[in-house]
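User: Please run a holo structure prediction.
Assistant: Happy to. Please share the sequence and the ligand.
User: Here you go; the ligand is flavin mononucleotide.
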Amino acid sequence: MKVVIITGSAHKNGTTAYLTEQFIKGAQEAGHEIFRFDAAFKDVHPCIACEKCHGSSPVCTFKDDMRELNPHLLEADVIALVSPIYYYDINAQLKAVIDRFYANDALLHDNKKAVLMLTMADDTMESADGAIASFKGMTNFLGWDIAGTVVGVNCMTLDMLKKTNYPEQAYKLGKSL
Ligand SMILES: Cc1cc2nc3c(=O)[nH]c(=O)nc-3n(C[C@H](O)[C@H](O)[C@H](O)COP(=O)(O)O)c2cc1C
């Protein structure tokens, strides 16, 4: 299967980067093809709802790094979204990419699987409730099946994450696809 991973964090050695690496390790061991897109290091303009993509000659206004991601998104069997929680939601870099799915909305209504991996400082799930609700709504709308989630509570730093079994959960989720 083709697995596309989209991350949001600007921390190259942060908590979500570590979960991403473990997830990829598991998925590669299971023989899957990986494409990783680190949104924080890409040029992705937020959607402005100009609707040109839904017009008579559909095209996105922005000629940015979504042109690199889009072919992989369309081919993907699994799409994994990975973000730190910022103010009770996914971060802006990942959200900007998701909103740009709009340009390929019809094509993305497909038989895909989705994964969500989050980390956050709080030691309860409360900070992740909004992100999880959005993910469930979005996957339901697009007709994607949820393959699994990893939600790392009490993980402000990489050291804290490494003392938990969330990296193991991420690895096993990648391997189970
Ligand atoms: C702008 C900002 C907002 C944050 N908001 C929350 C929050 O609402 N709840 C929470 O538990 N942690 C919050 N955090 C903590 C991060 O989610 C946490 O440190 C995470 O491990 C960072 O992941 P990363 O190392 O992959 O970037 C916030 C951090 C930042 C920088």
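The pocket of flavin mononucleotide is lined by residues 9, 11, 14-17, 84-88, 119-122, 127, 155-156 (CB under 6 Å).
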